[in-house]
């Protein structure tokens, strides 16, 4: 009987591949034969000598000390593409929420008094500020064209978007999956300059850590939408916050200057 230490919640459909007659799966084992996980971090966790294999229900392995385990002869398995469709749907949801300003629109509606006599009038008057944009005709830039990136590309094309992609390490198999109408960007910087929406689908490695930093944020369009459904470290969070503060300051300044223009002059212009 093999003892499987399961550190994260795994779908019963996945665990069904481990016959109970041969495998015993539990959240706690003192001497497990294998470790099954998703997001649990093994870098600072002692790995028992009894462990024969480590498996991650997902593509990335940055939360697993692969080199140290390999030195001990312990293989590490992953499941690239296993959750590709789920991530694709999250990207679509995020694009719609961002493009149509759904989060601030919901907050606006929730801030209103539903018992007020002018409730409907205030909704009608206020909804214009949350109109946002439609996705067709806009450009989606996909960084990383693996299993997830190719699904996102296909989805965006069917929505009427233009799609450009960048992946210097694309495999032959991934290239076959990619829709033919996806335009290849010659560099990441070129993609960032052209895209209205940027979605990231690359693993967290030393080469990709801080991939989106202050200098690259400056290349993006002021109204661009950045989506990161990969790993946190791929985007410099402090640089994003600084860029947002700068945009907010510039917008407030522009609105102040606009309010100082005489009404007659504004109409004449």
Could you characterize what this model shows?
With 269 residues, this protein is an alpha/beta fold. The protein folds into 2 domains: 2-77, 3-Layer(aba) Sandwich (Rossmann fold); 84-255, NAD(P)-binding Rossmann-like Domain (Rossmann fold, 3-Layer(aba) Sandwich), CATH 3.40.50. It is 38% helix and 14% strand. It has 11 helices and 10 strands. The strands form 2 sheets. A 5-stranded parallel β-sheet has the order 2-1-3-4-5. Strands 8-7-6-9-10 form a 5-stranded parallel β-sheet, sandwiched between helices. β6, α6 (147-158) and β7 form a beta-alpha-beta unit. The model is unreliable at 261-269 (pLDDT under 50).
- Spatial shape: globular
Order of helices and strands: EHEEEHEHHHEHEHEHEHEHH
The CATH homologous superfamily of the largest domain is termed NAD(P)-binding Rossmann-like Domain
- Strands of the widest sheet, in order across it, are 2-1-3-4-5
The quaternary state of the protein chains shown equals single chain
Number of domains: 2
The total of beta strands comes to 10
How is the biggest beta sheet arranged? 5 strands, parallel
Q: Supply the CATH class of the largest domain.
A: Alpha Beta
CATH fold group of the largest domain:
Rossmann fold
Mind telling me which CATH architecture of the largest domain this is?
Answer: 3-Layer(aba) Sandwich
Unreliable parts: 261-269
Strand content: 5-15%
Helix content: 25-40%
Number of discrete helical segments: 11
Q: Specify the structural class.
A: alpha/beta
Distance between the termini: 81 Å
